[in-house]
Amino acid sequence: MTQSDQLLEALEGQARRREGRRAFFRAAVGAAAIGAGSFLVANRAAAQTLTDADVLNFALNLEYLEANFYSYAVFGTPIAATSVGGTGTPGAATGGRAVRFSDPIVAQHAREIALDEIAHVNFLRQQLGAAAVAQPAIDVGTAAGGGFSSAARAAGVITGADATFDPYASDENFLLGAFLFEDVGVTAYKGSVGLLTNKTYIDAAAGIHAAEAYHAAMIRTTLDQKGIDTPTLIANTEAISNARDRLDGSADIDQGIARVSSAAGDVANIAPTDANGIAFGRTAQQVLNIVYLNAAAVTAGGFFPAGVNGTIRSSALSA
User: Fold this and answer.
1) Which sequence ranges are marked TM in the entry (predicted)?
2) Number of domains the chain contains
């Protein structure tokens, strides 16, 4: 059996497992409702102790991360110095560089997302005013112990303590790096918008959530198309998805882009949803588990070596 045959067989197995997982969801709507109720209760409890500014500042930390990754990839520089000041411990975004895109479509997508993410940073900072947190230290580099390489190692995309993953080395690597962030951004806004009380902020957060979902769909669609000729891309999205699920707890709230089988034929998996077609959400703590690359309750690590700024700083012990 050739390597390509093995990869195709693995992908077919993943598709069968995903179809079984969706069948499980359909058979367990009652249990899902209970889980959703628990999630809402947790959110309401958190809302009693968090202000809108706390929630927006948490989102701002994530936007700093995404904006700097895309800014490096497209422009070769971090975001402007005028967009990083504020309260808390300031830090620099380091390690990135420009991608030499070979596919003009990928380059166009990257430029659009970069401009959107930078606009998100500036918008949130404007809304928060003097309460905006400073950009924390952010690692978007390629060192063996850095965020990207550690994430790729946790997923099995690379192996060995000295192995590195460089999201700036090629179009395909860039897409995998973007895939790592975009799905997390969508679930973060889905999970946090319910904590807001000001209708203006709710509307703005919903708008950013929608933009992040568009971005994720762009990345997932492009990976899906390129995966036809390069099956390892599909397999790597599944590996990254599984790693995120291991970090954020036992609930299966993440999906790669492997296609699934149905009576009508193969079905694309561009939009990762539950059995009701609803996008997944994560608590702030689950999001921090992923960006800190740690399933324990910690306050720093991974892409934020000194932690994020603001009230919401700690991940939670994954159950």
Assistant:
1) 23-42
2) 1
Q: How many CB atoms lie within 10 A of CB 94?
A: 16
CA distance 285 to 251: 14
How confident is the model at residue 2, as a pLDDT? 46
pLDDT recorded at residue 9:
47
The predicted pLDDT at position 109 comes to 97
The closest of 230, 236, 60 to 148, measured between CA atoms, is 236
Residue 108 lies inside a defined structural domain of this protein: yes
Would you say residue 8 lies in a domain? yes
Q: List, in order, residues 6 or more apart from 232 with CB less than 8 Å away.
A: 7
| CB-based contact 125:87 (threshold 8 Å) | no
Asked if the structure places residue 20 within a domain, the reply is yes
pLDDT at 187: 93
Instruction: Tell me what the pLDDT averaged over the chain comes to.
Output: 87
What's residue 252's pLDDT?
Answer: 87
- Report the pLDDT value the prediction gives residue 208, as an integer from 0 to 100: 96
Backbone phi and psi for residue 310, each to the nearest 5 degrees, phi listed first: 110, -175
Stretches where the chain sits below pLDDT 50 are 1-47
How far is Cα 130 from Cα 71, in angstroms, rounded to an integer? 25
pLDDT at 249: 85
Q: Residue 151's domain spans which residues?
A: 3-291
**Does some domain include residue 194?**
yes
